[in-house]
Amino acid sequence: MTEKIKALIEKLELAPHPEGGYFRETYRSTGTVDLGAPFYGERNHSTCIYFLLTGDSFSAFHRINQDEAWHFYQGDPIELHMIHPDGTHEKIIIGNEIEQGMLPQYVVPAGSWFAAKTVGSEGYALVGCTVSPGFEFADFELAKRQELTEKFTLHAELITEFTRI
């Protein structure tokens, strides 16, 4: 891990995230809403995190019940893979080189499986993620390789690359 990455983790007070990378919640709205399925309870209107992904790791396939907006800040572009509920695969590059087709912001639709890795030479990417209704770990599901592969056999190689269990 480079000194720059260590400094970002320290300065932003980041902690390891279960999907890979590092994070810290930076905002949780005070307002709440009581929701039915799939939430089964009260959620804050919105939450935000810093998310740091390093070049020696990846964000494993996971899904949540909410839309999640990614906002690029600095470092390498991120290759974001999604497998939507209908089985289609989509790859988006999140970064600041808009003229090369990168998007500085992208929203992952609720219920889609998604995973990410950095691409480039910086060794890290710093992004923000905004979730609405607000994120709760009760809404988070980390993919199990065998189960996801059985459901989406066409994407077995991608699923193997972006799962740990």
UniProtKB/TrEMBL annotation:
Organism for this UniProt entry: Reichenbachiella ulvae
Highest rank taxon of the organism: Bacteria
Coiled coil ranges: none
Domain DUF985: 7-143
Pfam families, alphabetized: Cupin_5
Alphabetized CDD domains for the sequence: cupin_YML079wp
PANTHER family: DUF985 DOMAIN-CONTAINING PROTEIN, RMLC-LIKE JELLY ROLL FOLD PROTEIN
Protein name in the entry: Cupin domain-containing protein
